[in-house]
Amino acid sequence: MNETDVVIIGAGHNGLTCAAYLAMAGLRVKVVERRKVVGGAAVTEEFHPGFRNSVAAYTVSLLNPQIIADLNLAEHGLRIVERRAQNFLPAPDGSYLLTGEGRTRQSVAKLSQRDAVAIDAFSRELEAIADVLRQFVLRAPPNLVEGFG
Ligand SMILES: Cc1cc2nc3c(=O)[nH]c(=O)nc-3n(C[C@H](O)[C@H](O)[C@H](O)COP(=O)(O)OP(=O)(O)OC[C@H]3O[C@@H](n4cnc5c(N)ncnc54)[C@H](O)[C@@H]3O)c2cc1C
Known about the structure:
The chain is an alpha+beta fold and about 150 residues long. The protein has 2 domains: about 1-55, no CATH class; about 85-145, no CATH class. About 35% of the residues lie in helices and about 15% in strands. The protein contains 5 helices and 6 strands. The protein has helices at about 15-25, 65-70, 105-110, 115-135, 140-149; strands spanning about 5-10, 30, 45-50, 50-55, 85-90, 95-100. The relative contact order is 0.08. Flavin-adenine dinucleotide binds near residues 9, 33, 35 and 59.
């Protein structure tokens, strides 16, 4: 007897999320992961004794609220912590870029006046693109839906 309907290769956050939805839909799912820990690039690891953090991806801005609700992530311990600054990027010569609400343009201006003038329009453009793409994020390809129908 076949005990598995779906095998997902890789327990990154996309694989784990898909596995959870498929299991909730009643399918028997097996996730295989080559590492000893799950999470892929969003894995939480102890990078120094006593300090745990995601060692690659660090923001959850793309984590869709619908997924947070569907998977009851708050009940499973999800707590989103707002950063005091968006990014702090130090350079070996002592200069740095500190970005975040209300301070990005000023910080960029220290490195490039030209970029400082352009950055607000650039950010607006990115937001507009993100708004267009966001609506497609949770849509399954039609043939996939038919396949499981
Ligand atoms: C440096 C860096 C910073 C990033 N920062 C952010 C951020 O701040 N916010 C954000 O939203 N996104 C960020 N991203 C993007 C985000 O990490 C990826 O979009 C996300 O990790 C993709 O998830 P995934 O599950 O598709 O793949 P992955 O996270 O790459 O997971 C794939 C998993 O599959 C496993 N695997 C691969 N091949 C096999 C195999 N043959 N057999 C078994 N297991 C296998 C791997 O070990 C891994 O665990 C960042 C990416 C990088 C590289």
